[in-house]
Specification:
Blueprint (H helix, E strand, L loop, with lengths): L4 E5 L16 H15 L3 E7 L8 E5 L2 E6 L16 H14 L4 E5 L1 H11 L8 E4 L4 H8 L9 H11 L2 E4 L2 H9 L7 E3 L24 E6 L8 H7 L6 E6 L11 H12 L6 E5 L6 H6 L3 E4 L8 H8 L4 E4 L4 H4 L6 E4 L4 H12 L2 H18 L2 H17 L1 H6 L9 E2 L1
Parallel strand pairs: 1-2, 1-5, 2-4, 5-6, 6-7, 7-8, 9-10, 9-12, 10-11, 12-13, 13-14
Antiparallel strand pairs: 3-4, 8-15
Length: 419
């Protein structure tokens, strides 16, 4: 079906944002690439996001067939996503006004607050479009792992439980998420697993390498927001057992602002206490276009979060032909083929990280073999074109009526994995 009018609602994660800044990470990339992939398949796509700066144009052409629409809700300034809840009624009113004037064929909400706003905006519409929900992360999982450190609004878990019962379909990003959704009252027959993806033109084994290597040190790369749950501490804590190995960490504020960033200072203090400060380099925010070269510069990429709904960096590393040491959690259980494209370890376990990294770093031929397997797996299963096609299959089934909707619960080609 061509010409399908699709609205992607992403209240805090603009597809135009610089990745690596606070609250700007995998969801921003996901929304941007999904929108572009859907447009390449013939859809007319609008991404609705909150205006978080003064002077932003109301509409920005992002890609042929994709427009980003900035909605005024709350201050025209960055607001931490966990403080956005009070502005969601205003966001929902703006959505409703848009859809009263020109209803889309499908609405796909990204993150729980986007889902709440989209559901409220649809109330009372003469012709309610099918509403698809992708959570990207679930409050119940975040609360389980972070406890009192979780700053999410107290209503989050209740809202998510209501959404899984109310939306027309849930697109989960990994199979581990499905069991969580079912425990919230979700219906496996209205759930489809579609992973995140990579651009194989950019993320590939051959190409530039940066920063240059001096040949004397082995290199581990981490690409992540500077957030405790991402497990950067565990990689730093593994370095004393990995002599001759440097760690490059990309993410956080621009390099010039790292000196005043609290999390960056905390990580540097940890490295000093462990005696590895001379082998840890915090790069700050790295431009999206520079990430493939950074990943290709690594002997291995570490991604060892406490929990992870999907985790795009391991897939990008694999696509560049670099093996991964990853946590055996969430989406990494789907993406990293343990002992073939990388090594999975328990979360929050520095000795396990050190042992897995040492095994790979001490065996160049194994790294080469794993890297080739990783690149092939990423190309075959995680290209954004495939992700967009699988997502569009969901949209088309929902807009075609009950008979087609029931087909979503039937396993097809193993790509969009029905729950």
């Amino acid at each position: 079906m061509t010409g399908l009018r699709v609205e992607l609602v992403s209240e805090h994660a603009s597809p135009l944002a610089a990745v690596g800044r606070p609250d700007a990470g995998g969801q921003n990339v996901h929304v941007a690439e999904l929108a572009s992939g859907l447009a390449d398949l013939g859809c007319v796509v609008t991404v609705v996001t909150r205006a978080d700066a003064r002077g932003l144009p109301e509409r920005v052409a992002m890609h042929p067939g994709v427009t980003v629409h900035h909605v005024k809700a709350g201050p025209a300034a960055p607001v931490p996503k966990d403080e956005l809840w009070e502005h969601m009624p205003a966001f929902a009113r703006r959505l409703r006004a848009r859809w009263l004037a020109s209803p889309p064929d499908v609405v796909h909400a990204h993150f729980w607050m986007s889902g709440w706003a989209a559901l409220r905006a649809c109330e009372g519409l003469a012709s309610r479009p099918p509403l698809v929900q992708t959570f990207h992360a679930l409050g119940v999982v975040k609360r389980r792992h972070q406890g009192a450190a979780d700053t999410s609004p107290t209503v989050r878990c209740d809202v998510e439980s209501g959404l899984v019962r109310s939306v027309d379909h849930v697109v989960a990003t990994c199979r581990d998420e499905v069991s969580e959704l079912v425990s919230l009252g979700g219906d496996p027959g209205r759930t489809t697993v579609v992973p995140c993806g990579i651009d194989p033109r950019s993320f590939r084994p051959g190409g530039d390498v940066f920063p240059p290597r001096d040949g004397r040190r082995r290199r581990i790369v981490v690409v992540s927001r500077l957030v405790r749950r991402k497990g950067i501490d565990e990689v730093i804590a593994a370095l004393p057992d990995l002599p001759g190995t440097e760690l490059l960490v990309a993410g956080g504020p621009p390099a010039g602002q790292l000196a005043v960033d609290g999390e960056a200072r905390r990580l540097r203090d940890l490295a000093r206490r462990l005696g590895v400060a001379d082998r840890v380099r915090l790069l700050g925010a790295v431009g999206r276009a520079d990430v493939p070269a950074l990943l290709r510069s690594a002997d291995l990429v570490a991604c060892v979060p406490w929990y992870e709904p999907f985790g795009i960096v391991p897939v990008e590393a694999m696509a560049c032909g670099v093996p991964v040491v990853g946590s055996a959690v969430g989406g990494l259980l789907d993406t990293v083929d343990d002992r073939r494209t990388g090594v999975l370890v328990p979360p929050r376990d520095p000795p396990a990280v050190a042992a897995a990294a040492a095994h790979l770093l001490d065996n160049p031929s194994l790294r080469l073999h794993m890297g080739a397997e990783a690149a092939a797996r990423a190309r075959e299963h995680f290209a954004w074109a495939n992700v967009a096609r699988a997502t569009l299959d969901v949209y088309e089934a929902l807009t075609a009526g009950p008979a087609r909707r029931s087909a979503l619960a039937v396993p097809a080609d193993g790509w969009a994995v029905p729950a």
